[in-house]
Amino acid sequence: MSFLADFRSGTRDTAPVVLGIIPFGLVAGAAAVEAGLTGGQALGLSVIVFAGASQLAAIDLLGDGAPVAVVVGTILVINLRMVMYSASIAPHVARARRRWKALGAYLLTDQAYALSLAKFRSAETAGIGYYLGTAVPLWVCWQLCTVLGVVVGARVPPWLPLDFALPLVFLALLVPAVDDWATGMAAFLGGTLTTVAVGLPYELALPVGAVVGVLAGVVTDAALGGEPA
Q: For this chain's UniProt record, which GO biological process terms are given (predicted)?
């Protein structure tokens, strides 16, 4: 398939996920205003960081008056999982031009990674075009919803659980990815440890759980006679 055909295919596949991003973006925009950020600062944070969990953590810290170094460090720790994502999909986009790889690195999200990896496993023709097709709509939707959240998000009734959409989005991505014992063990142990370790400082629960999940998957695969990469 051509680049444009792959891009359109990725855009179609990401449409259901985009719907789940809408309430999450509204929450991020509203939270930024409630924490004392201006509209410009909220949008700047969204464009530069472009990571929902990291943005919410940063907004919370900024609202509490934390030093900038602490905010930046927290964002980096939470986003360490992106290093593993990059290593996982790098072989599938190795032939892409450097400028497309650079754009793809900036646009990397949990959703774009999950959708692309599932496609790469099932089709040899998909590449950077498909990945960008999933990532670009997510970026556009996130920025628009952040702006909308800044403008009207604070007026949303408190009883409306917009933040509940976040775990639903990740569950929708997780379930199709669990297709054998190794991925099941990785999801179970990684998720369990992350939940138990929620109280760790510097938001370390997520990267610790991710590392343990990866190790659990590799060990399980090896024990069952697989050849983990």
A: L-valine transmembrane transport
